[in-house]
Design goal:
Layout (H helix, E strand, L loop, with lengths): L1 H19 L16 H19 L3 H14 L6 H16 L3 H22 L7 H15 L4 H15 L5 H17 L5 H17 L4 H14 L4 H14 L4 H13 L5 H13 L3 H13 L3 H14 L3 H17 L3 H14 L4 H18 L1 H21 L7 H13 L4 H6 L7 E3 L9 E3 L4
Antiparallel strand pairs: 1-2
Helix pairs in contact: 1-2, 2-3, 2-4, 3-4, 4-5, 5-6, 6-7, 7-8, 8-9, 8-10, 9-10, 11-12, 12-13, 13-14, 14-15, 14-16, 15-16, 16-17, 16-18, 17-18, 18-19, 19-20
Keywords: Signal
InterPro entries: TPR-like_helical_dom_sf (IPR011990)
């Protein structure tokens, strides 16, 4: 069978030679193949022979034709390099010794470098594409060369920019984190700096959410992002440039994600807010002070940000956070007022309804008697709306669903409704607490 394949190949080659004899290689369109018509004809034949040799797995012959083409007309065809990578990947797999394998690996890397040299300006498969492929091959064939892997991926990402393959970004960063954990070649500040540098890539490519999760997981598991490491990293830098807005932003962002709550974090977070007041920074600070149960300070920052924020979407986020802080600090009227404003700005967000329902239920106890029991009708209706709107992965959805059963258990009994001259299904207006004025439906437990 093998002899038949080579026979067919030889026949095809003869036909190719015969067909080419009829062509005019002095035509300028063949100029990339050589200086003279004779050179062009021979080089095009060698290109055909390279293809045939690869197809027939005769990689020794293919290597001969590849060398001829690289020496005489490397700019002629991108396929020369495509077939060159096929050739050397097969030679790597068939190598009989480690030294021979390493030689073929070096040849494969050289093919990528030459392809980039001659076809790096290709509109679709240019430098970014070529270096991406090279980095992946480097990781596959040279897994122990950790520095070389990092350099290959960095070159690929620099070339690709915001259009890089998210898989390549994750591969680079995961390997960087592995090197931090397993070698002395990578320091924690490099992990932190690269995480901060690459995070905006995923903000600009929201469709890569799955890869963003892998990226964040690698960072978290690396151990580099501890509050101690972050504090050590930024203390000296900020001491030298205390008003550097970009540096403060980086420090606050990373320490917030690491859920730091030490005095140093609070000092730089408040400093950053002074340098650049924003709703985002106010949210960071509010969460931090809320964690310390300093609710008054949390609300101060949120309300300050609300006063100057003009964007409706950002105002809605601030109002939601004000409502949540009010709820946990038992400021029920304040929580309800903020939740209503947030609901009005975005009626499709389930969190304001969640807060309102909790406020209604909380004020029901203060109302007492049948009036208080009736307030649970409004609480139930509002929480049902929250359950309808909250996404399945919301941190509030479990509590919201269990609250429905709790609220229903506090409905008035049929006897209590009878004595208050109310029939099931009738309309009722709550007249007590934060739910006062809410119209609801009479139900019994």
């Amino acid at each position: 069978m093998k002899n038949v394949k080579f026979l067919l190949s030889a026949v095809c080659a003869l036909f190719a030679v015969s067909a080419m004899a009829q062509q005019d290689f002095s035509d300028p369109k063949y100029a990339v193949w050589g200086d003279t018509p004779e050179e062009r004809q021979q080089n095009i034949l060698n290109s055909n022979f390279l293809k045939e040799s690869c197809d027939n797995k005769d990689y020794n012959a293919a290597a001969h034709y590849l060398k001829e083409l690289l020496d005489k007309c490397p700019k002629a065809s991108e396929n020369t390099f495509v077939r060159g990578t096929t050739l050397y990947k097969n030679k790597i797999n068939r190598a009989k010794s480690l030294s021979e394998k390493n030689m073929f690996i070096d040849s494969l890397m050289l093919i990528y470098d030459l392809r980039n040299e001659y076809f790096g300006d290709h509109p679709k498969r240019g430098t970014a594409y070529i270096l991406d492929r090279k980095a992946r091959e480097y990781l596959t064939y040279k897994p122990s060369d950790r520095k070389g892997i990092r350099e290959a991926f960095r070159a690929a990402l620099e070339a690709g920019g915001d259009s890089s393959d998210p898989e390549t970004v994750v591969a680079y960063f995961s390997n960087l984190c592995d090197d931090y954990k397993n070698t002395d070649e990578v320091m924690p500040d490099e992990i932190i700096a690269e995480y901060d540098r690459l995070t905006p890539f995923f903000d600009k490519n929201p469709e890569a959410a799955e890869y963003k999760s892998q990226f964040d997981a690698a960072f978290g598991l690396s151990g580099a992002a501890s509050c101690e490491n972050l504090e050590n990293l930024f203390k000296s830098k900020l001491a030298a440039a205390p008003d550097d807005e970009a540096l403060l932003a980086q420090a606050v962002g990373l320490m917030s994600r690491a859920k730091c709550d030490g005095d140093y974090y609070f000092s730089i977070a408040e400093k950053y807010y002074q340098v650049k007041p924003s709703s985002e920074t106010a949210m960071f600070l509010a969460q931090a002070f809320q964690n310390k149960k300093d609710f008054a300070k949390a609300k101060t920052y949120l309300n300050e940000a609300l006063e100057v924020e003009k964007d409706p979407a950002e105002r809605q986020k601030l109002l939601v956070r004000i409502a949540l802080v009010g709820l946990v600090s038992n400021d029920i009227p304040g929580a309800a007022a903020a939740a209503r404003q947030a609901r009005d700005l975005n009626p499709e967000d389930g969190v304001p309804y969640f807060v309102l329902a909790q406020c209604y239920a909380s004020s029901a106890a203060a109302c007492g008697g049948f009036t208080g029991q009736a307030t649970f009708w409004a609480a139930y209706d509002t929480m049902a709306k929250a359950v309808e709107l909250l996404p399945s992965d919301s941190e509030y959805i479990g509590h919201a669903k269990s609250s429905l059963n709790t609220f229903r258990a506090n409905f008035p009994s049929s006897e209590e409704c009878f004595f208050n001259e109310l029939q099931e299904g009738a309309r009722y207006t709550v007249n007590c607490g934060t739910a006062a004025g809410i119209s609801t439906t009479v139900r019994t437990r």
